[in-house]
Amino acid sequence: MTSRSRSARTVALDALRHVEERGARADITLDRLLSRATLAAVDQALATRLVYGTLAWQGRLDWHLAQLCTTAPERLDPWLRTILRLGLYQLLFLDRVPDHAVVSTSVDLARGFRRGAATGLVNATLRRAALERTQLPLPDPVAAPLDALAVRWSHPRWLVARWCEELGAAEAEALLQADQDPCPTILRVNTLRTDRAACIDALDRAGLATRVTPFSSVGVELGGSLTAAQAALPDGWTTPQGEASQLVSYVVAPRPGNRVLDACAAPGGKTTHLAALMQDHGEILALDTNRGGIVALRARAAALGISIVNARHADIRDVAREATARGSPDTFHRVLVDAPCSGLGTLRSHPELRWRASEQRIASLADLQTEILRSAAALCAPAGSLVYATCTISRQENDAVLEQFLAARPEFTLDNPSQDLPPAARALIDERGVLRSFPHRDALDGFFVTRLRRRG
């Protein structure tokens, strides 16, 4: 292999180590490392595929490593375990990479671990994997159906059990399989500066494949790299944002001149979309507890030519308490709670989240979401609307939070947002008027979005 290809693997290893050992986000970490590595486009694509593929298939890789390696994966040093996962992923899932190249580059990576002390282990384990890969066993689907699904589709067993209970085994398996598909790169067109047709024309002239998103009327799906697309477009024409995420702002349905509160706003994709729907006329108060996220939100708004966003580093619960203590809180026509959640609807683009989630974590998040929703509701004006959104398909974070809120606050009622959605997206509204999307049903991230109307 060329030194350039080895550099792609070095970047991938560094990114995976940050995710494994420091709890970093894969997308942010990889973007930062690629910006410093000056790799050719083909090698950037290779590094990206290695990182996301290794994380997505981590559970299955560890299952096989337990059979191939003399030491159990959980007992290996994290650095060494990551090298083995990276090599095994290439052997099992990348057909175009020769076996000898995978083994040799993995051994090269292992030379940096304790002065090469584990090169023999890496060499022996991956050579054995190359010889035995067609015979590597999986759990028996008859004797252990949940184990079989968990290993085959590389998800935690507890999560597989939960989804089988909520969706049924057949649909749960379809969801697990869809989570392993690469997530498309989506841009949202900034309608304050241009339109979708002009963006697609510019990208076509640059030789970049595109297609319009089927559900969002301002989305463009890229067939090539995000970097190349951004270079081909004038500044401020687009911003990266998933298609399901774009639909949230349509549910909020702000009007020019409205006062809007975005209670959990960073890093600003939905905030800036709201501003575009308002034609940059009115007021948006954008709050978040992440100081760095607020900085990023301000930068994004400035890049898109938006002037109506007031971004503040603050906790909505504190803001609501202070407003209530004053006796006459400022209220807003539209309030959005895009709540912190487990992110289990976004495993195509954030595969590491499946390994960080837990039943205890979901229960804790549901409590936090309930607190945030109740706080934000205090700032919703009479006859105004309150939107609760998550990027998870966990009923405990979605339906249960909603039902608990409605029971405590009878002045809020469900409000069907169909009329405010792009026509194709209306099919995502269920019988209660809630927007639900799923990777296996809609080829979208899994979102839950509901609009509540406060009685006047």
Number of helices: 20
pLDDT < 50 stretches: 1-5
Shape assignment: globular
CATH-assigned homologous superfamily of the largest domain: Vaccinia Virus protein VP39
Residue share in β-strands? 5-15%
Question: Biggest sheet: strands, sense, closure?
Answer: 8 strands, mixed
Structural class based on helices, strands and sheet pairing = alpha/beta
What is the helix fraction of residues, given as a range?
Answer: 40-55%
Q: Can you identify the CATH class of the largest domain?
A: Alpha Beta
Total tally of structural domains: 4
CATH architecture of the largest domain: 3-Layer(aba) Sandwich
Cα gyration radius (Å): 23 Å
End-to-end separation: 69 Å
- Strand tally is 12
Mean pLDDT across all residues, rounded? Answer: 95
CATH topology of the largest domain: Rossmann fold
Descriptive notes:
With 456 residues, the chain is an alpha/beta fold. The protein folds into 4 domains: 3-137, N-utilizing Substance Protein B Homolog, Chain A (Orthogonal Bundle); 143-179, no CATH class; 185-240, 2-Layer Sandwich (Alpha-Beta Plaits), CATH 3.30.70.1170; 243-454, Rossmann fold (3-Layer(aba) Sandwich). Helix content is 50%, strand content 14%. Strands 5, 6, 7, 8, 9, 10, 11 and 12 form an 8-stranded mixed beta sheet that branches. The chain has a 4-stranded antiparallel beta sheet with strand order 2-3-1-4, with helices on one face. β2 and β3 (219-222) form a beta hairpin. α1 (3-22) packs parallel to α3, α5 (78-93) runs parallel beside α7 (119-132) and α9 (157-167) crosses α10. The model is unreliable at 1-5 (pLDDT under 50).
